[in-house]
Amino acid sequence: MDVNIVDKSNWEKTVEVTVPYVHFKEDFEKAYRDYKKNIKLGGFRKGKVPVSLIKQMFGNEIEAKAAEEKVTEILKDISKEYKLKPISPARIEKISFTKEDGLKLKVFWEVVPEIELEDYKTLSLEREVYQVEEEDMADALENLREQNAVETNLDEEAQIGHIIVADFQKLESTGIPIVGEKYENRAIQLLKNDSEAENEVIEQFVGLKVGDTRNVRFPRIDPQSQQQVMDEFSVTVKEVKKKELPELDDEFAKDLGDFENLEELKSKLQENLAHSFKRDYEQKFTEKIIDELVKVNQFELPEPMIKNYLDLLIEQMKKSTKNEINEEQIRTNYRADTIRRLKWTMIKDKISELEDVKLSDSEIDDYIEKLAEDNKKNSLQIKNYYRNEENRNKLEDDLSEQKIVQFLVENAEITEKIITRNDLKNESKIIV
């Protein structure tokens, strides 16, 4: 097979291919056998026409069709051999077949462009490390108390801190109930926070008693206009409850699990919090690495590549909602993130190629085994989940990315910065 690739741009290729006649010998033999099974010709029973006669009468047509049916496979082999990653299917510009010249093919191909990387092994980064404090522990313990609280019914007006169980009927602007939008036995706890808008919603429930009905308004963002709108509901109260929190003592710890006393519970909680914060800040650090690499490696993306990604995103959104979506607005809102994601994919693929950072099947299998071992109750479901090719491929992508990030971390100059709860409070004030 003779292949000539001409660059029209960094991502546009004209590929001219010549495949000799003898290359298709087995394909022709199969085509003749298949044709013989079904051909009806005067003087012969079905399936009994001699192949020599078939070749004489229909040979050129059969062979040309058989050769052309191999085009997809031929292009796949070319993309693999020459490391071309198609953005879209190749567009055939010319195709011909003769015994003398074989199959001659000219296609126009849009492919992922080749890129040159800079500074990926000389990154200088600051990594934030969160330090768990007593306030974090106090909040975590309070959450455990909330989760294990006992609720008691009240025969009085609802106040801040109480829980209301009610039926919510959505209304049209005219006040008429909307069919199919009634939500029964929904619970809401009347708690205030730093959000003035949320506090205004909560205030609408204060003073309600069992049997009361009141119209309340909830703000939401309209997916089409991206503007805030108000939804109105008729709320009928069925229960008013009060939470009674358990005492924070050794008995509480014993009720939660295999703990001898409160100190053992606190120790485990400290460990879990540290692990959780570490995981979150490792993800933030990964995003920082990606941002830095995208910044120092400037290259243009083909517009069809961006369009294809956004097309897929829109299709996924359509499948996940019954509401109409504004496609143009989605393309505008998600364009920057799409470009970042695509560039990162190209960068990590290039690093994998240059540094031979590969993920083996055994590494994937080991990860699944460990996941199943750590979750013994669901081990069978986990293994079955990753037998699905799509799920396994997604896992492979995630693990490959982790391996690339680990390589970058090992080759970067990193300084650590301790982050405290107070730092996060100050940061929040600055953002506001």
What would your notes on this structure say?
Helix 1 crosses helix 2, helix 8 packs across helix 9 and helix 10 runs antiparallel to helix 11. The chain is built from 13 helices and eleven strands. By secondary structure, the protein is α+β, with helices and mostly antiparallel strands. The mean pLDDT is 91.
Topology:
Layout: E1 2-7, E2 12-19, H1 25-38, H2 51-68, H3 71-81, E3 91-98, E4 102-110, E5 124-130, H4 134-147, E6 150-153, E7 163-171, E8 177-189, H5 196-203, E9 213-221, E10 228-244, H6 250-256, H7 262-296, H8 303-320, H9 327-355, H10 361-374, H11 379-385, H12 389-411, E11 413-419, H13 421-431
Parallel strand pairs: 5-11
Antiparallel strand pairs: 1-2, 2-4, 3-4, 6-10, 7-8, 7-10, 9-10
Helix pairs in contact: 1-2, 4-7, 6-7, 7-9, 8-9, 10-11
